[in-house]
């Protein structure tokens, strides 16, 4: 069990907090959460790219062994993070925009750039991003297959982003509408379904029907992200 931080606002302007969070068990951090911040641009904002402070953040994350994640991040910022980081970058829960055109999804250029540097794209199970609120296992497998066909099965995983307490989510969305764009339908939790963790066996079977070998399914279901952990995470004594 480990933790992530969704958006770098949690460090404010203090680089020292990155190592502190790492010591607390945070193993990856998103650069932005939809909106621009001190680090860079969000996917629902006018993306100005990685800032000078953002470049320092990437360097410090590389030093301590924290994985950079570009889900919720703008395209320009994501490409700059991938180019700058000396360790693989992930999209922990992002889907291919080619299958459903939504600003939270990522295009082929970004997918290729991530994979070329050894990264992994985790396909989420959010109906809004899979398209038409379709959270069937076959639909999720189709998104996985798209990325695997584009860059190989070593660079795709599953990051369901499942919400266990959906009433809490609805309350959060009501209280923070600015995080999700001006369009009230962009993140309407009232009508959003989520693929459930219990669907993992069905997703595995769907991948099998698409011709994926058991060894590839194992990578997609976790071994690819495990590889990232082994490559990037560092014991505390190695950070100094």
Number of strands: 6
Strand content: 5-15%
The residue fraction in helices comes out at 40-55%
Mean pLDDT: 93
User: Which architecture name of the largest domain does CATH use?
Assistant: Alpha-Beta Barrel
User: Can you tell me the CATH class of the largest domain?
Assistant: Alpha Beta
CATH superfamily of the largest domain: Metal-dependent hydrolases
What count of structural domains?
2
Count of helix runs = 9
Terminal CA distance reads 24 Å
In the CATH hierarchy, the third-tier topology of the largest domain is known as TIM Barrel
- Enumerate the strands of the largest sheet in spatial order, edge to edge or round the barrel: 1-2-3
| Structural class computed from helices and strand pairing | mainly alpha
- Rg to the nearest angstrom? 17 Å
Q: So what's the overall shape?
A: globular
Taken in chain order, the helices and strands follow as: EHEHEHEHEHHEHHH
Describe this structure in words.
- It is a single chain.
- This protein starts with a strand and ends in an 8-residue tail after the last helix.
- The chain is built from 9 helices and 6 strands; from the N terminus they run E-H-E-H-E-H-E-H-E-H-H-E-H-H-H.
- Helix 1 (16-24) links the parallel strand 1 and strand 2 (26-30).
- With 240 residues, it is mainly α.
- 41% of the residues lie in helices and 8% in strands.
- The protein has 2 domains: 1-87; 98-240, TIM Barrel.
- It is globular, with a radius of gyration of 17 Å.
């Amino acid at each position: 069990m480990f933790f992530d931080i969704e958006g770098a606002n949690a460090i404010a302007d203090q680089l020292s907090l990155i190592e502190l969070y790492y010591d607390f068990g945070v193993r990856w951090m998103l650069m932005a959460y939809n909106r621009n911040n001190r680090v860079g641009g969000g996917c629902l904002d006018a993306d100005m790219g990685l800032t000078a402070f953002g470049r320092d953040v990437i360097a410090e994350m590389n030093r301590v062994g924290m994985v950079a994640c570009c889900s919720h991040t703008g395209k320009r910022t994501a490409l700059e993070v991938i180019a700058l980081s000396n360790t693989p970058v992930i999209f922990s829960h992002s889907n291919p925009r080619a299958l459903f055109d939504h600003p939270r999804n990522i295009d082929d250029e970004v997918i290729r750039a991530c994979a070329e540097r050894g990264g992994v794209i985790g396909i989420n199970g959010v109906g809004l991003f899979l398209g038409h609120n379709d959270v069937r296992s076959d639909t999720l497998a189709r998104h996985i297959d798209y990325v695997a066909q584009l860059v190989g099965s070593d660079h795709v995983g599953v990051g369901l982003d499942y919400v266990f307490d959906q009433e809490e989510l609805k309350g959060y969305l009501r209280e923070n509408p600015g995080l999700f764009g001006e369009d009230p339908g962009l993140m309407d939790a009232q009508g959003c379904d989520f693929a459930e963790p219990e669907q993992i066996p069905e997703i595995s079977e769907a991948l099998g029907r698409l011709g994926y070998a058991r060894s590839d399914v194992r990578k997609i279901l976790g071994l690819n992200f495990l590889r990232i952990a082994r490559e990037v995470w560092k014991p505390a004594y190695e950070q100094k």
